Amino acid sequence: MFRDRSMVAEGSRMRRMAPLVAPVVWGLVAVAWRWWCPLAREPGLPMRIATSVVFLTVGAGLVLGVRRGLMRELARVRAVAEAAQQVVLRPPPARLDGLAVAAGQLSASRGAVVGGDLYEAVATPYGVRIVIGDVRGHGLAALGAVVAVLGSFREAAHDEPELAGVLRRLERALGRHLRERAREEHPSRAGQPPEHPAAEEFVTLLLLEIRPDGEVDVLDCGHPGPYRLGRRAEAVPVGDPLPPLGAFPLPADLVPHRATRLLPGETLVLYTDGAEEARDHRGRFFPLDAVLTDSFGDSPAAVVRRVHTALLRHTGGRLADDVALLVVRNDRVRVPAQPAEPGLRRTRPAPSPY
C-alpha cells in the first residue's frame, strides 16, 4: 500500500517536471556550445548575435515551460475547489415539496468559489426548512465555520420537530468548531498570532420553515430579513433579532416568529448583507429592492442571474464582501372548494315527533 502511494507521488512529480525537460536539455546544449564550441568563442558581431539568440530561445523556453506547468496546476486546483463547493455549498434541488428553488454565490476573494456565506434548503416531515448565513469575514478563512453550521443543519433539520431545536443544534456545532480553533491558535501550538482569531468569529443566519399551507416561521440571528415578491418587492418582518451565533449565548426561550404566508405564485428571496451593502465607484448602495421588483414573474434561477448581473455591473466586478442568494417560489396549486354533487346534497334530518 505504501509502495503504491510512493509510486503515485513519484508519478505526480514526474508529470509536474515534464514541461521543463525540453528547455533544460536545450539550455545544457546552449551552455556546452557557448563554452566548448570553438565557433562560439570567435570574435565578431554575427557570432555574438547567434549566441544571444540561443540564450534568448533557452530563456523563453524555460518561461513557457514553467508557465505551462503553473497553468496545469491552477486548473487542477480549480477543479478541486469546484468539487469542494459541490459538497460544502451544494446547489439545492430545483424543486422541494412543491417549491421551486434556486441559489447562487459570488465570492469577494479573487479566484475563490467558496467563501463565508452559506445556504441550504431541505424537505422534512415538518415542512421545507431553509438556512442562510454569513460568517464574519469572507473567503477561505471562514470555510471551517461554514462546514460546521451546514453539516449540523443537514442532520438537525430532519431530526428536530421544532425549529428552535434546529437552532440549538447549530449553536452547539459552531461552539465546538470555535473551541477547536481556539486550541489550535494557542501560542504554545501556533507560534504566531492568527490572522482571523476564533474569538472574533460569529455567524449571522436566518432559519426558516415553510409549511405545506404556506405559513413561514422564522428565527433570525442578526441576519437581514427576506423579500417577498408579488407585484413589488416587500420586506418580510422577522421579529426581534437574536444574537449572532458564537457572539453570545442564545436566550433560554426561542419562539419562532410567524413572518408571512407564501401564497401560490409568490416568491421569497433570501440574501446576505453583501448584496445590500455593495457600492459603486461613487459610493452608492446597490438597489436590491428595485432589482427584485423588476424580477416579478421570473423563475427563481432567473432572479439569481438577474441580481448577480446587476451586482457585478453596479460594482464594476469588484465586490467588497461575499454575496449569496436563495430564491424560493411557491408552485403549489391552490385547489378551490368543490360544490357538492346534486345527488349527494346533505339534508337536515326531520324533526323528531317526540
Describe this structure in words.
With 354 residues, this protein is α+β, with helices and mostly antiparallel strands. It is 41% helix and 19% strand. The relative contact order is 0.11. It folds into 2 domains: 2-80; 90-330, PPM-type phosphatase domain (Phosphatase 2c, domain 1, 4-Layer Sandwich), CATH 3.60.40. It has 7 helices and 11 strands.
Keywords:
354 residues, alpha+beta, Phosphatase 2c, domain 1, 2 domains, six-stranded antiparallel beta sheet, five-stranded antiparallel beta sheet, 41% helix, disordered C terminus
Give the mean pLDDT: 79
Strand segment tally: 11
What distance separates the N and C termini? 94 Å
Beta-strand content estimate:
15-25%
CATH superfamily of the largest domain, by name, is: PPM-type phosphatase domain
Give unreliable regions as ranges: 343-354
Indicate the CATH architecture of the largest domain.
4-Layer Sandwich
**Biggest sheet, strands in spatial order?**
1-2-11-10-7-8
Topology (SSEs and partners):
Layout (H helix, E strand, L loop, with lengths): L1 H35 L8 H44 L6 E2 L2 E8 L10 E8 L2 E9 L7 H17 L3 H22 L2 H4 L12 E8 L4 E7 L5 E3 L3 E3 L21 E5 L5 E5 L16 H6 L6 H16 L7 E8 L24
Antiparallel strand pairs: 1-2, 2-11, 3-4, 4-5, 5-6, 6-9, 7-8, 7-10, 10-11
Helix pairs in contact: 1-2, 3-4
